[in-house]
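Researcher: I'd like a structural prediction for the single chain below. Treat it as a standalone chain; there are no partners to consider.
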Amino acid sequence: MGSITDVPGIAVGHFTDTRRPTGCTVILTPKGAVGGVDVRGAAPGTRETDLLSPLNTVEVVHAVLLSGGSAFGLDAAGGVMRWLDERGIGVPVGPVRVPIVPAAVLFDLTLGDSSIRPDANAGYAACVAASTDAPAAGNVGAGAGAVVGKLFGFDRAMKGGIGAASVTVHGVTVGAIVAVNATGDVIDPATGRLVAGARSADGLRLHGSTRAVLQGELPTHMAVGAATTIGVVATDAVITKSQANKIAQMAHDGLARSINPVHTQSDGDTLFALGTGESGRTANITVLGTLAAEAVAQAVLSAVRAAESLPSLPACKDITTSGDSR
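Model: Treating it as a single chain, here is the predicted structure.
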């Protein structure tokens, strides 16, 4: 299955808050990486995404932050900037170097004390913890407070998390890391079977959100922005900024295969793409996008399979499946 750290030039660090389930995850590219982004959800919480447009000037980013805490969690990016600044890492602007740190957040404020959310110190701590080793998965970092299957109410949802995966073809590697906090259910694309999501009214089985809706069952009203799946795909191929944006766009196919429904009014689904160029190879962008989508789908599965139960919020290992997702 691998990890995004299989891509040379990428390091990952988690900060997990012990006071309540929340945290943040940093994807570091200290040498700089070409960056792109694609935002599909209707309720995103993001920073520096306009900068990643091919129309705009800056060509590289130095880190991407994924955080819990909803919009409050964007504060953690300041700590990432401070860590990079202390090491002289950034884009030269006159006499200074300015670190470029795009970010995206997910909503996890319903678990525990909502006044506790990742801040600049949390972002800094994630950088200190960063390593090229495979990062931990499940209830850590940005996945600490992640929840999936919210379409029929939080009391019937299940624990989400963060996970990673990678694919290597002809000497080029594409990896992904995804924090899964979705309104919809998680599905194994290889089998079509439900893995995690909304539970039956008695809480003992998976319900099948899409199948229930098709049969006329109306979902519970959800507050806009009360979910969101966020992540990063990275490759060691040499790519342009425009190509990075296309890879980010195609990577969302991996979310569509593994989460249903996805990109909803309550989700701010956002995927970043990074190209480190460390392999020195170029590659067909359609192929890279295809690999990115596969890595994202596998990272989603990794996230929920590694998740651990919280009180009244079971993980997938605790719930029996209810057949396929149709």
